Amino acid sequence: MKTEDLFREDATLLSCDATVTAHGEGGVLLDRTVCYPVGGGQAGDTGWLIAGEQRWRVTDTRKSKEHPAAIVHLIEGEALPPVGTAVRVEIDAARRMAHRRFHTATHLLCALLPYPVDGCSITEGYARLDFHTDEPFDKEAIQAGLDRLVAEAHPVGHRWISEDELDANPGLVRSMSVQPPRGLGRVRVLEVQGVDLQPCGGTHVSNTAEIGPVVVTKIEKKSAKTRRVVLGFAG
Hints:
Blueprint: E1 4-5, E2 15-24, E3 27-30, E4 32-33, E5 47-51, E6 54-63, E7 71-75, E8 86-91, H1 93-112, E9 117-122, E10 127-132, H2 139-151, E11 156-162, H3 163-168, E12 186-192, E13 196-199, E14 214-223, E15 226-233
Parallel strand pairs: 1-4
Antiparallel strand pairs: 2-3, 2-8, 3-7, 5-6, 5-8, 6-7, 9-10, 10-15, 11-12, 12-13, 14-15
Helix pairs in contact: 1-2
């Protein structure tokens, strides 16, 4: 059982037509979706399934444990759309855009702070990265760097490389806690042109200018070898 993940190629898609293929794991599985499932530190999408006058609230989206290539849409309440139902999938557009802006901003942080990443969280309200280092961080310098990279309007895009290419370039992997999925023969890499290149399956803006005003709200020393940077939106 497989769900076609339309968001991998186009993060701007906010809706699609789909068919309910199964029930399970607290929700429904679809043959295709625009909903990103929680993973890689990024929260899952929420939204609605719509069939005529009927609407079902999608409270979260997750990868299926029973079917690794499928995506589960958790539904509010006990009534689920029957298997075989044709539905319109619509995501919460504001939530998606917040995820796209924050996720791309974390890639800028990776460019400014060249240390391994050992923790990540991207939500609608904030983003954080934990860096494996004992070096002190300069909050004002990081903020200035983010402002510069956003203003420079670097194009953002993705491409696919083979697992052999990734093995030949192990330095592309910055994360200590999340490794790129194996066994598919290829790996998706996110490129902020001239700034950052690393494996990533999340949703992003198409240009750093779209990130808009983002602020370093906090820098924390979480342990002897961990420094945390938290981002929020200005205003």
